[in-house]
Design a protein that fits this description.
The complex is a heterodimer of chains A (90) and B (569).
Chain A lengths: L5 E3 L8 E7 L3 H9 L7 E7 L6 E5 L2 E5 L1 H4 L2 E5 L11
Antiparallel strand pairs in A: 1-6, 2-3, 2-6, 3-4, 4-5
Chain B lengths: L2 E6 L5 H9 L16 E7 L2 E7 L11 H9 L5 E7 L3 H12 L5 E6 L1 H6 L2 E3 L1 H8 L3 E3 L8 H6 L13 H16 E3 L6 H10 L1 H49 L5 H6 L3 E2 L2 E2 L10 H27 L2 H14 L7 H7 L3 H6 L7 H14 L3 H11 L4 H25 L8 E4 L7 H36 L1 H17 L5 H7 L4 H8 L6 H14 L3 H11 L1 H25 L1
Parallel strand pairs in B: 1-3, 1-4, 4-5, 5-7
Antiparallel strand pairs in B: 2-3, 6-8, 9-10
The chains are: A alpha+beta (90), B alpha/beta (569).
């Protein structure tokens, strides 16, 4: 398995699809995200990001959720497939 | 008395269902967090009076925020729960459902937004879902009322099923199993508003749409507001009310105590709605003739933006800027509500998670966000001198809002969490719900503002007659003239500003101020102190100590800004 395949939500490109692997946060954050349907095993699509450390938006099932920059950095996602053309932004 | 609770995720249509069940009209909008307090209503079931409570939305019964704590607390005194589910997000909504089913309280499920499932290509086997969960399930469409009768009819079937799972992992496994059995997805095409959703998510497209929406809203509010004033309000007062008042004036003998109170001063032998200041002249004209048209146009636009679902998208765009002020993007929603009236704006700060955020947001709203009534008067009075002066007032308020937010962000202790919010889908607003909501807000304004305006005008007249204002004016003269460059008579307006700001601006009209003085006095009035109604809400939401703090900041900020304007302009 490529190590690059596991990246944070923040590092995903817009339009990419992946599966949530872990959430690097406390119980409180886990619970809040879980309530919104974001938990390990869930497939998500990154829809947009905003410049200057702004929030990231993603789609999970039929809902769109906006997540602050710091939280988005704590959500680890495994990309669906690793294409050579995909760039991993830092 | 049976007590029914409406429980569900945020923005699944609980408030719309509440309206349908009880017949009580309340504000419902297409974004999470419309209901910040709870709303109670009643309906008759046979002979029995049933109480219904619209509980603030919650994603889980393991509360993660203050609003959710309130919701969980309220579960204790219900006899029956209507669990409202967004049928287009079955899995996530069932998480709360399964938690509810573990409580010893009968549950019935309203599978809401049923109409949306079809065009999203979602098929749900309701009978099978009912079987699996063991409680009655009724598909509903809250905004149109579809399924409500059936829902009410099946209340007695609500039950406490045996639900077994332990821990959240097992719960999610169970939910996954249920969803697999009852839901199937079919292919569907993007609707045109889903394309629009994609466009507003786009970085450049989002900013472009925001600029378009905001400038169109501003233009519309002004165009419609002005239109109502010049084509309806002014002619009505001019042709119908003035002749009546003139007759009354003659009956009262064109002068004397009652004439002064009811009609006020005649200007060149005529009633002048901006200067006479009687109860029946200016006292009625300001709220109904000058302010109401703008209330109508503002809330018409706000209602549309709310129901389309645009505001949360604006919140995302504003997030970076708002973080500089110690808030996150979602705080833009209370701020925009504050542009209508500060009272609901400050109440809506409850959707923010931390105490620090609520303090900053509420303080900023009372300083830098002028309500529609105040704005209508500023546009009416300062606008006569030229649009650049109106722009100066707005510019000063915006700059104060930014600077004070920036300072508060660096001085107020505590932390401001990040944004984490669901963005609702765009929906085509129903004309009927827009109209109902508009009517609700207009009648609210008339009911709450009109009496206060009339009492204020009455008090002003009596104080004038007694001569109290003169001594206040003389005492305040040094500050006003030296610091702000205003004539001492403006103190009267500043004092009245504590009761009603629209009347206060109206009191500037007869003073023959220069354009510069009008800009300064309008700005100071807007920032200086909240009106009485806002002050009460501020004290209730922040507590006494923080309210005093906020008031201190307001006074300091207003004097600083007014002094600067006096130096620069």
């Amino acid at each position: 398995m490529h190590r690059e395949r596991q990246i944070t939500l923040h590092q995903m490109n817009i339009g990419q699809t992946g599966t949530v692997v872990t959430i690097l946060g406390g119980r409180g954050l886990m619970q809040r995200l879980e309530g919104l349907g974001i938990r390990p095993g869930k497939r998500v699509i990154k829809i947009s990001s905003t410049p200057f450390r702004g929030p990231v938006t993603l789609r999970v099932d039929n809902a769109q959720v906006a997540i602050g920059f710091g939280m988005a950095n704590k959500i680890v996602v495994e990309l669906d497939k690793y294409l050579p053309g995909d760039t991993v932004t830092r | 008395m049976t007590h029914i609770l409406l429980v569900g995720n945020p923005n699944v249509g609980k408030s719309a269902l509440f309206s349908r069940i009880t017949g009580a009209r309340i504000v419902a909008s297409n974004y999470p967090g419309t209901t910040v307090g709870f709303t109670r209503g009643y309906f008759k079931s046979g002979e029995e009076r049933v109480q219904v409570t619209d509980v603030p939305g919650t994603y889980t019964l393991e509360p993660t925020s203050k609003a959710e704590e309130v919701a969980v607390e309220m579960l204790k005194d219900g006899d029956l729960v209507i669990n409202v589910i967004d049928a287009t997000n079955l899995e996530r909504n069932l998480n709360l459902t399964l938690q509810l089913l573990k409580r010893q309280i009968p549950v019935i499920i309203a599978l809401n937004m049923w109409d949306d499932t079809r065009h999203r290509g979602i098929n749900i086997d309701v009978a099978r879902l009912e079987e699996l969960l063991g409680v009655p399930i009724v598909p509903t469409v809250g905004v149109t009322g579809q399924g409500i009768k059936e829902l009410v009819r099946r209340f007695p079937e609500a039950s406490v099923p045996k639900t077994t799972y332990s821990g959240s992992d097992e719960r999610w496994a169970k939910i996954g199993d249920i969803v697999n059995q009852v839901q199937s997805l079919s292919h569907r095409h993007h609707t045109w508003y889903e394309h629009l959703e994609d466009a507003s998510n786009d970085r450049i497209g989002g900013i472009f749409i925001a600029l378009l929406v905001l400038s169109a809203s501003f233009w519309f509010v002004r165009f419609v507001g002005e239109g109502i004033i010049s084509h309806i309000a002014e002619p009505l007062f001019e042709w119908l009310w003035t002749p009546l008042l003139m007759k009354l004036s003659l009956v009262l003998g064109s002068g004397g105590f009652w004439h002064n109170i009811l009609i006020g001063k005649l200007i060149n032998g005529q009633v002048d709605y901006s200067q006479s200041f009687g109860l029946l002249s200016t006292g009625l004209y300001i709220p109904l003739g000058a302010v109401l048209p703008y209330i109508v146009s503002f809330y018409l636009v706000l209602g549309m933006l709310e129901d389309v679902g645009y505001l949360p998208r604006l919140a995302i765009l504003m997030d970076t800027l708002m973080h500089k002020l110690g808030l996150h993007g979602y705080a833009i929603i209370p701020t925009i509500l504050g542009l209508g009236c500060n009272v609901p704006g400050i109440m809506a700060t409850r959707i923010l998670e931390s105490r620090r955020e609520r303090f900053i947001a509420a303080t900023l709203i009372s300083i830098g966000v002028p309500c529609a009534a105040l704005q209508a008067m500023i546009i009416g009075l300062v606008g006569q001198q030229g649009w650049q002066y109106v722009a100066m007032v707005y510019g000063s308020l915006f700059v104060s809002w930014l600077i004070i937010g920036f300072i508060l962000n660096h001085t107020v202790r505590g932390f401001s969490p990040e944004i984490l919010v669901e963005i609702p889908p765009y929906r085509l607003p129903l004309l009927q719900t827009i109209a109902e909501k508009l009517w609700l807000r207009i009648s609210g304004f008339i009911r709450e503002a009109l009496p206060v305006v009339l009492v204020t005008v009455l008090v002003i007249n009596i104080l004038y007659i007694i001569g109290i204002f003169n001594s206040i004016a003389n005492a305040a003269a040094p500050v006003l003239t030296n610091l702000l460059g205003l004539p001492k008579e403006t103190i009267v307006a500043l004092v009245v500003g504590f009761l009603r700001k629209d009347i206060a601006i109206g009191m500037l009209a007869p003073l023959a101020l220069t354009a510069k003085q009008l800009v300064i006095s309008s700005t100071v009035l807007a920032m200086f102190f909240p009106c009485a109604a806002t002050f009460v809400i501020l004290a209730r939401e922040l507590g006494a100590r923080d309210t005093v703090k906020a008031a201190g900041i307001m006074i300091a900020a207003a004097l600083t800004m007014g002094g600067l304007q006096n130096l620069i302009l």
